[in-house]
Design goal:
Low-confidence stretches: none
Strand order of the largest sheet: 1-2
Number of helices: 4
CATH class: Mainly Alpha
Largest sheet: 2 strands, antiparallel
Strand content: 15-25%
Number of strands: 2
Number of domains: 1
Structural class: alpha+beta
Oligomer: single chain
């Protein structure tokens, strides 16, 4: 069972070769990009990896953050169906948000 934060991350992750940076997700979901916010996103990544396997990693740019050549994360194409099924589980509250 995913936490609310991990479910929100999973809903936003694109499929390879497109990805999102941890800073982008932290700013969007938590409203901050500080070390604690980035750490919470990293914890969400670990929850997702336990459920559907490791995420795709690549290099890309976060132009809106003024950062280039950074690590970006997304779903492997073969994980897309598992991710959708996980998010579509009926009555799933996705557990505590770990706030």
């Amino acid at each position: 069972m995913l936490s609310d934060l991990a479910a929100a991350i999973l809903e936003r992750l694109p499929t390879e070769p497109v990805g999102l940076a941890i800073d982008e997700l932290a700013a969007e979901l938590l409203g901050r990009r500080d070390p604690r916010g980035r750490g919470r996103i990293g914890q969400g990544f670990l929850e997702i990896a336990e459920a559907i396997g490791p995420l795709w990693r690549g290099r890309g740019d976060a132009e809106d953050l003024g950062r280039y050549g950074i690590v970006i994360y997304g779903l492997h194409r073969h994980q897309l169906a598992a991710a959708q099924a996980l998010l579509a589980e009926p009555g799933e509250s996705h557990g505590p948000s770990n706030e």
